[in-house]
């Protein structure tokens, strides 16, 4: 018996409907169980979008059929794994980082479905929700030419009007020891996901981002930003603290090129390509890509630099090198 027919169009349409419903639910400030329902809908939206992506390339979205049972479609973790294994992530979207982001929400969803989440976890998951919406929009545009912004007032995104006003934010959690332990366990799981993404050279700006009140990216989070402080005499506190540049910009120029060349399909890049691109696009002046200590001699580079350099073609590098060489000759005259 062959697997049932699956409409790609219906998967895409239902995915968009689920994501729109998630944003609408989150923007109802007095709704109870709001965080849980939002995350469930978002995970569902991604599962449908990933299945549509697999079907678009004639990949199976079913588990092997067992005798006497009907076909079962794959769950979110397997959908993420199959899209990654088939290299179906869009060129300008970092797969490992998006996987870490979605899995963070899946972890939250699973806890809510099977039991409940400790008070305060909604505040921890908020930066992941914000970035997830933007990741989803980019993914759907790249894969299906469907823009979430066409169906809603974009000012609603990311998710709500109340964004952290400071890079350091403290949130109370329940005094109950079991609740504090649950928060610690959840934070530990998030840190593992983020560490895995960072070790793979993922774009950490795709995992979780805190926005200021003007909706401009203020910082990106790494696993080092997630800390649980538990006092025996006071309430437990979850702290999202300032980012360590050693975490956000971990690569030397040499290591940067190694990471880029591991991921690129074109020719191997050299330090000359990097220098030319820095000159052309002023990468050293952009804190998103480069960081240098005031007394340091060289710059350190972020995972976002890796993603950016991987996204460029050989022709673009050749053009940058040509312009850079011309500028050097002009300066020498």
UniProtKB/TrEMBL annotation:
Q: EC042-2821-like Restriction Endonuclease-like domain location, by residue?
A: 244-314
What range(s) does the DUF3644 domain occupy? Answer: 10-192
Matches recorded under Pfam families: DUF3644, EC042_2821
List the InterPro entries. DUF3644 (IPR022104), EC042_2821 (IPR049530)
Q: What is this protein called?
A: DUF3644 domain-containing protein
Q: Which organism is it from?
A: Microbacterium laevaniformans
């Amino acid at each position: 018996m062959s697997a049932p027919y699956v409409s790609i169009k219906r998967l895409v349409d239902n995915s968009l409907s689920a994501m729109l419903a998630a944003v609408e639910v989150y923007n109802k400030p007095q709704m109870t169980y709001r965080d849980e329902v939002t995350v469930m809908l978002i995970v569902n939206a991604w599962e449908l979008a990933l299945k549509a992506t697999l079907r678009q390339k004639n990949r199976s979205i079913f588990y092997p059929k067992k005798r006497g049972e009907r076909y079962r479609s794959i769950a979110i973790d397997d959908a993420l794994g199959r899209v990654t294994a088939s290299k179906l992530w869009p060129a300008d979207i970092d797969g490992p980082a998006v996987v870490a982001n979605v899995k963070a929400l899946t972890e939250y969803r699973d806890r809510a479905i099977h039991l409940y989440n400790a008070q305060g976890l909604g505040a921890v998951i908020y930066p992941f929700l914000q970035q997830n919406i933007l990741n989803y929009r980019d993914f759907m545009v790249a894969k299906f030419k469907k823009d979430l912004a066409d169906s809603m007032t974009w000012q609603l995104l990311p998710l709500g009007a109340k964004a952290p006003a400071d890079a350091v934010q403290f949130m109370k959690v329940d005094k109950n020891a079991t609740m504090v332990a649950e928060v610690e366990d959840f934070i530990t799981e998030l840190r593992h996901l983020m560490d895995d993404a960072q070790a793979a050279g993922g774009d950490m700006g795709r995992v979780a981002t805190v926005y200021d009140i003007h909706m401009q990216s203020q910082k990106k989070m790494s696993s080092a930003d997630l800390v649980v402080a538990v006092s025996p005499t006071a309430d437990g506190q979850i702290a999202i603290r300032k980012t360590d540049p050693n975490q956000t910009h971990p690569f030397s120029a040499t290591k940067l090129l190694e990471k880029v060349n591991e991921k690129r399909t074109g020719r191997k890049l050299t330090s000359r390509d990097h220098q030319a691109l820095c000159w052309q696009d002023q990468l050293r002046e952009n804190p998103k890509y480069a960081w240098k200590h005031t007394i340091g001699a060289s710059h350190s580079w972020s995972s976002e630099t890796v993603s950016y350099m991987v996204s460029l073609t050989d022709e673009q590098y050749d053009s940058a090198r040509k312009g850079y060489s011309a500028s050097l000759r002009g300066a020498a005259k």
